[in-house]
Each structure stands twice: as structure tokens, then as C-alpha cells.
Amino acid sequence: MLERVFLTDKLHDEKMYENLVEEIRSSPDYLNLLLESSEPWILQDINGFILDLSNSFADKLGYDPDNLRGRYLPTLRVIPLIQKSRLRIILDRLAEEPRPCTTIMEFMDADGRDVPLELSFRPLELSGQDFILVTARDASEKIHEVAELRKTISELRNTINGLYRQIDRNLQLITSIVNLQFPYIKDGDDYELLRDTQNRLRSIRKAYEKFIHEGSFESINFAGYARSIVSGILSTYSPEPGNVRLEMYFEDAEMGLDLAVPLGMILSELLSNSFRHAFAEGQDGKIRAVFRNKDDHYMLEVRDNGRGFPEDVDFENVDSLGLQLVRSLLNQIEAKVDYRLSPGTCFRIKVLKLADGE
């Protein structure tokens, strides 16, 4: 913490102020300061009173330097009202924790024009007393660069948004075409295949809808995405109340589409499989879906207490299109899977976060 030397009182006494400035200017440290400082500068006490400043700083604002010396910086007309509170906060922080810091602030010159300056605050000691050296650079170019960067980012966001909206519209069109086929399907197996295709398309669409709605253009919240998938599965299979109970617990996790979509489709396939095959008609049962966000990995678990798979079924070589898709998606995201096929089924999937680019 910087020691407050109560220069405020001294500055009210013109003679004491002159003596203090003379003492500081005669110190070797002050002479070194002049030699080292090629940029406009202000030397102030930790309360914000100006002890001295370079002519170049005053020239930037169109003021006589003598009219600024001995004045309290946060109250000067050269600083707009909206910036005064920011300056006081910076000075208070420097008094508590004397560390260099940099910020951009707008000053007002003698003609009332805004002058953006990049200010660097550096605590230093002169003649055994604590002061703050403020150096200034023209920030106009930097502000222009930031504005151009924001414009570029905005244009890129609009482009990405348009691209994903087009993808979403195309998926809607494909889904509509699939839906139009249902009245013409007579075979039960074909009907199930078409319904599975409908669920897969819905899972992908939900991801893009979340992506567009959340507007981050980098990631989506997987918990919300997973809940929307479950909602779609329930609307498809509509288990009778009291028969099959679904429990779900999804922890929040932000992830990119390259991981969220495959993981969401795996969730959809496993839930669909449990609803379709785990229980006989009218049988009571429970399905549980859990997603956990661990320190270095994600964990997705889908289990049921149903009849399980037949003993001769090999998950690694299964003929089911849905489970083949699950295996393919697991390989795509480089996930590890532990499973139990009977009694009941349980799939526990572990995905390292490095696979999501983290």
C-alpha cells in the first residue's frame, strides 16, 4: 500500500507546494525521469493532485501547463464527467495495491473536442515519497482498430448465423419430406426405420436451433440440448403414465457442435432403444439418463431395468442400424464406453474434454 503523505494540504499552501516541487525537481530520480520519459507525462500524488507535467501533455489538450500544476486531476474540466469516477477508482486501487496499469480514457481539449488517450499509471518513489507517474499516448488509432475489429466480428457473426439458419431450413425440409412418407408406409419395420430417421434429424436440428438461439457462435449448453432431445423422444414414444418412468439429470456444460451433435445423437439412440425394446407392453420400468461435467472429461450414462439384450448379441458386431450408428459416433468423438447388456442395459460413455478442443 502506498503511503498517503497528505500533499493535499501542502498544495493549498502555494509556498509549500513550490518548495515541494523544487525538492522533487532537484532529486536525481526526477532528472532520470525526464531523461527516460519520451512520452507526455503527469506526476501526481496518490490522491490525484498534479505535482508536475510535461509541456507535451498540456499541449495535447491545448492548455497552459501552469494552469494544470497543483490541481486535482479528477475534478479538472479536461476529464468528462463519465470518466471522473473511473479515474477515482483507478487511483484508489493504486493506493491499495501499487501495480502498473493501463487504460484508455477520453479527455477534453481547450476547444471542447474529445481526445482519446491511452494512460499508463506507474507508482514510483521520489525523495522518499510515493507518487504516480502517468504517461499518455494517442489512442485514436487503437480505438479505430478496435472498432474495425468489432465490425469484422459482427459481420462474421451475421455470416455464420445466416449459414446455420440455412442448414436448419434444409434440415426442416428433409424432416418434412420424411414426415410425408409416413402415410404410405405399411410395413412395421419400415415404419420404425422412418421414425428413427425422424428422431435423428430432430436431434441434429435441435443442436442448430440451440446454437442460433444462444448466439454464442462457439458452443451450446449441452444440458439444455439434451433436455430438448428427451422431449422429442417422449413425444415420439409417448409411454403410458405409470408404466415406464424416465429419470434424467444433466449438468451444465458448454461445448462445440462437433462434440454436442454426436453426443446428442448417441443419447437419442440409446433412449430410443430402451423405450422400444427394454419393456414388454404394459410392463413397469425405469430409464435413467445422466450427464456429468467432470474436471477433465464428460460422462454420459443411459441405463434401464428392462429385459436387456439377448445373450447372443455382441455390441461390437451388432446388426442394429441404431447401435452401429452409436459405435460409429463413439469412434468419431474418441469416446470410451463401458456397457452391460443384461440384466437391463447400461451404457456409460466417457469423453475427454481435449476431444472438444479444450
UniProtKB/TrEMBL annotation:
PROSITE patterns this protein is in? Answer: HIS_KIN, PAS
What does the UniProt keyword field contain? Answer: Coiled coil, Kinase, Transferase
Work out whether the entry's keyword set contains Kinase: yes
Query: How far does the signal peptide extend, from start to end residue?
Result: none
Which CDD domains does this chain map to?
Answer: PAS
Instruction: Indicate the segments forming the PAS domain, all copies.
Output: 27-71
Histidine kinase domain sequence ranges: 263-355
Q: Which GO terms describe its molecular function?
A: kinase activity
Q: Which residues form a coiled coil?
A: 139-166
Q: Which SUPFAM superfamilies match?
A: ATPase domain of HSP90 chaperone/DNA topoisomerase II/histidine kinase (SSF55874), PYP-like sensor domain (PAS domain) (SSF55785)
User: What protein name applies here?
Assistant: Predicted signal transduction histidine kinase
Organism of origin is Methanothermobacter marburgensis (strain ATCC BAA-927 / DSM 2133 / JCM 14651 / NBRC 100331 / OCM 82 / Marburg) (Methanobacterium thermoautotrophicum)
